[in-house]
Each structure stands twice: as C-alpha cells, then as structure tokens.
Amino acid sequence: MLAQWSYISSSKLNAIDAEERIQEIVHVSVPRNRSLNVTGALLFSGRRFAQYLEGAPAAIEELKASILRDSRHSDVRTIASGKTPHRHFVTWSLAYAGPSHFVADIVERSLNDALEKGDEGIEALIQMMSEFSIRGRS
Ligand SMILES: Cc1cc2nc3c(=O)[nH]c(=O)nc-3n(C[C@H](O)[C@H](O)[C@H](O)COP(=O)(O)O)c2cc1C
Prior knowledge:
Blueprint: E1 3-11, H1 18-35, E2 39-44, E3 48-55, H2 57-68, E4 73-83, E5 95-97, H3 99-117, H4 119-137
Parallel strand pairs: 2-5
Antiparallel strand pairs: 1-3, 1-4, 2-3
This protein binds flavin mononucleotide.
C-alpha cells in the first residue's frame, strides 16, 4: 500500500536567509527521502510551506514525526492523509518550488492568458498586478 501526507504550515524562517535555510532542508531531505523511497514536493510561498509526501506508510510516519517536531515551522495543518493509488512525483525525492519560481509561474500563466484572451485577459492581468503591488507595499 502507498500512503500520502500533505500539510500546510507557517514558516518561522527569517525572510533574509529563508532561501539558504530551505536549501539546508532540501539538502537533508533529498537523500533521506530517497533512502526511504519517499517522493514528493515542497512549496514555499515566503510565508507558508506546503508539502506533499508519498511512500510506504511506515516511511511516511517516520518523516511525519521528524517534520512535526521541526521548529523551522509551526501550525502544521494536515490537508490530506491516507492511501493513494499511485505516485504523483515518481522521479522526485523532493521537488522544491521557492518564492521566485512560485511567483514566476503565476505571472507566466497570467501573461499567457492575457495574450490568448485579449480584452478578457487584461482584467486578470490588472487584478494580478494590483495584488502584487499591494504585497509590494506592505
Ligand atoms: C517544511 C519542512 C519540510 C521538510 N521536509 C522534509 C522531508 O521531506 N524529508 C526529510 O527528511 N526532512 C524534511 N524536513 C526536515 C525534518 O524536519 C528533519 O529536520 C530532518 O529530516 C532530520 O530529522 P530528525 O530531526 O528527526 O533527525 C523538513 C523540514 C521542514 C521545516
């Protein structure tokens, strides 16, 4: 049987060196996940983590115990857990998307939409621009 666990947590990392600290996490996670035959992905928004892990139930439980007691994040909320019929990240011990990738993907999608949809797409583009500029100010 294949198990999965996904959660969202609040980052306790300082914005200044968050990327470096996450590289340390990824550096430890990739070999450990590989040795446990666990695959998955980690997303970081700048404020929160989202992670999805899949593998043998005992391996997922072992990682979950480590991750839950890790002080680099808090308020770990399980989104889903239990059986999964197949792997979603067959070749990834831990796919990682940091804030720059995360934002770039959203921007790319909006730009493609704007080009494809014309007038309709410009509304979404303006919406995205205003959301990002509010974030830029705060
Ligand atoms: C957001 C986040 C995600 C993590 N993901 C993994 C992971 O996928 N695999 C892993 O081995 N460790 C992961 N870690 C690190 C573990 O919490 C832990 O520090 C590491 O596995 C060493 O385990 P130990 O503290 O039980 O010795 C993650 C930590 C954080 C903060």
